[in-house]
Design goal:
Elements (H helix, E strand, L loop, with lengths): L2 H8 L7 E10 L2 E9 L7 E6 L14
Antiparallel strand pairs: 1-2, 2-3
Length: 65
């Protein structure tokens, strides 16, 4: 199973978490993306880390806030 497939399997279980940390940086000449999710005291924090990221976009919908 690929790491992306693993992400697709785990991601639906993250509903209700909020994005606590988001970083995109170069590590050893490789683009790395890390997303930290937080629920609170009731559930453990989750972290998704990706390497070899070629594109990343963040969109804010109007009225979000």
């Amino acid at each position: 199973m690929s790491s992306f497939q693993t992400f697709l399997d785990v991601a639906p279980r993250c509903q209700g978490y909020f994005l606590d940390r988001f970083s995109l940086e170069r590590i050893d000449d490789v683009a790395a993306l890390e997303m930290g999710l937080r629920w609170g005291l009731g559930k453990p924090d989750m972290t998704f880390a990706f390497r070899d990221v070629y594109f990343c976009a963040i969109e804010v919908h109007s009225g979000a806030g």
